[in-house]
Each structure stands twice: as C-alpha cells, then as structure tokens.
Amino acid sequence: MPDDTAPLLALSGVSAHHGGLEALRDIALELRAGEAVALLGRNGAGKTTLAEALFNLGPRLAGSVRVMGREVAGWPTHRIARLGLALVPQGR
User: Where is the chain membrane-spanning (predicted)?
Assistant: First the structure.
C-alpha cells in the first residue's frame, strides 16, 4: 500500500555512470502532489542518465529512488510504470 504522506517521487544520493564516465553524483529530489519539476541542461548534463536511473534502465551505482513511498531498486521497468511514473522522450 502506498504511503499517502510520502513524496510521489523521492531521489536520495543517486549516482550513475554513462559510457564509463560519472554522469550523476549524489542527486536528491522530492516531488509532491501538485508540483512540477523540469530537468534542464546542455547535452551531456545527465538528464537522460537520470531518467534511466528512475526506471532501472541503466546502472545506478548508489542512492535510493522511491515512488509513492516504495523503493524501486531492482524492479523491472513495467512494474515502476504501474505506479504511475512515465517517461515521454523528446519528439513524441
């Protein structure tokens, strides 16, 4: 059962590599009901790597990703999507 008091999305200490290089280091973010967040940055800033880390599509070296109060480390992508998290790539 989801925790109604928890943020909808919470990242803590997320670090990840992309192509052998450190792309994310110690990322923290909370998103609550009614809020919106935009990830902005130049090419190579880590936006895609962060999205991949949210859905376990790439290697996450450290940190916690919680969706509706549930830690999703190791979950398959389709199970995370069932919690309501979605990724819409540019141009779609």
Answer: none
